[in-house]
Specification:
heterodimer, A: about 525 residues, alpha+beta, four-stranded mixed beta sheet, 18 helices, about 25% strand, globular, B: about 280 residues, mainly alpha, MetI-like fold, 10 helices, elongated
Chain lengths: ~525, ~280
Amino acid sequence: MRKLALMVVILGLVGLVVGGSAQTQKPMVTAFQEEPDFLDPHRTTRFHSLVVLSYITEPLLDMDENFDPVPLLVQSFEWSEDKLTLVFHLKRGVLFHNGQEMTSRDVKASYERYFRLSPLENYIGPKYGGITEIQTPDDYTVIFKFNNPKPLALFHIADAHASIMPADWLAEMIDEEVGVRGLVGTGPYVFDRWIRGDRIVLKRFEAYNHAPDYMKHDGPAYAAELVMRIIPEGATRLAEILAGNIDYTFDVPLMGYQQIAANPALQVKMAPTYSVQYLVCNMKREIFNDRRVRLAIAHAINKEEVVKGAWFGIAFPLYGLVGPGTTGYWKGIEEIAYAYDPEKAIAYLEQAGWTAVDRDGVRIKDGRRLELTLISFSNVDQWKAAAQVVQTQLARVGIKVNLALAEVGATYDRARAADYDLGIFRNTWWMGQPYLTFLTHSVNIGSSNFGQWKNDAIDTLLDLSSNALDDALRRDAFIVAQALVVESAVWVPLAVNVNVMAARRDVGGLDELFSHPWQPPLMRALVLYKQ
Amino acid sequence: MNQVTSSRTVRRFARNRLALVGLVFVAAVALAALLAGLIAPYDPLAMNFDALLVPPSATHPMGTDMLGRDLLSRVLYGSRYALLIGMGVVVLQMVLGGALGLIAGFVGGVVDSLIMRMVDIVWSIPGLVLALALAGALGGGIWVMIIAIAVTGWGQFTRLLRGQVLSLRELDYVTAAYAVGAPRRRILFRHVLPNTLGPVIVYTTLEMPTAILASAALSFLGVGAQPPTPEWGALIADGRGLIGFAWWVSTFPGLAIMIAALGFNFVGDGLRDVLDPRFERRI
């Protein structure tokens, strides 16, 4: 009898392994609060676009749970001794969704396009003294020739924005059609259709079998179809989650967290995130040339209140622009960040000449009221609430803030045109150095440096932190850059939120997914399954 | 209107119970707007981070919102915006649409055709969609919202006034005024315009709730009043994501809108009944 039972167990286990019992024809449904702009990895800067396209296209490398770059589309790679040559040996037999095998030609074409188009490419490209030549001696070897050593190159190569697409397919498409009309990559899901304002549907790529080593499952994905529903409205998303119509989502409406957590049909997972929210002063506005005004604003902000009021307490105060879940985070930033001190804020304003106060409590200098316009996003309750909290806090010290909240696209258009005084923005990137460069380096004025500010010291430190060959010097430069950014008071960090995932009870693979610090989308595609 | 006629009108209005209920509602909204500064228990903008989403209680009779603001105070102050928007829209529509209607009806001919084709064009576009587009393009805010709603609704006043003028100008006393050589301007302002006032008052009263509802819709959709303005539509929008567990955030502003809209509608119906002889038999 015991032998029989043992045999049944063994057969069951064999069946599980061989048959891949988690594989299902059922669709997996997820919900997004924001619709991607387009899915072109080389052009988009939006977080939700990156998430979706990461299911479809892949970069050469990935990053494991220790923040180490690991092979994804390559078998191996090696640096030359002078760190000016990087050789990749591609995996053989990796297929694109159109059936073509990925070769070195595709890598070269993709990188050339990435260097030409990507607003995020600020490090390894020829413009920055990085890769000046890409050689393809055979179908499975790619050689990157660098002009200067780029110690962080592997991290940038592991970024999904540097994804590989077929050279022939790219040649047929005009740039603006990529990621709009279609998208072809090597990822575990194939782009099927995009119904604007409603959903994006992906189909399982049956030939996928090259997941990175840190994942237990090589592929293909478990679910035959992935339906990504676009539900911007928090209440609707909450209702859909509670009704069991969403299998899993990372866009949990925080106001419904308690309801979701109390629902026995659902499971909730939480992890610190690398997504940071900050207030920024537009330095193109003359008023902010006086550092005392910026310091007043920094001291008037109570981050605890922002966290409580806007994130229902499911977030943490943020002290630097690089959050704790990001590579290169420096804990010392907490000591130098400006503390909430409204009296100090008032003192700074008075030193700056804003001494008179009108009957509305607004400060006046030379007949001008201290009245500022703050832009942010209207479609997400958290930002809407954060903007109001900041407005109230600044009113306490005599700064009148007029809110101009609009949907994401309109707000970014206004931000790029520098048409605002203050802004509240969110940014999400797990790589600290390029992220801080993206937000504060002067090369990004007009695109992502919403401080619209050029500071030579910050630029130099950021350049050092990316280019110095000495690890200690690189690390120290990055620490000082973080400190200078905070001390400038151009950027006022507000909150770092928590990654909350809600899933139905029958969704498996969550423990493995949360073994990785940022639950990368590729991993979501490969390890989550429906029982 | 002489004294006898007006007291008869008041008596007839007073016999209409629904109209009286409407008057009470309107008076309540007007009083709330006038006395908000005195009767509101809290500053409508004051946040209390230790009292987030508190249910209705003795301390906060309508509860608090997600930033700990007292909802009763916000609803009371919101009545000011409702009346401001309602009156602002109606006055703008009356001035713009009414003037065009008077000109169209009185001058006639090509001018009439041109004005009425303009009305047709405005009317061919769904009002709320046009208001939404305008408010979105102009950047939101109370005054933008007033302009956006007024721009979409003036045509009705034009039609009303034009129709009135067309029928009045054929009446004997107008013909007689022409016959004795009275100037056209005098005829228009002395003999025609005053006699259009009855229908205009009725329509104005009925247009108030439409304007209040439209502004609430625009604010709800995010292109109207900007936070933290306690405009009723914006208050409902604040609570739409919370309805499952903080029902009070949307419900009380919603009730306030309902009371204001019903009030003006009942009063408008009552006025129409007493001012329009065609409805006299129904009373």
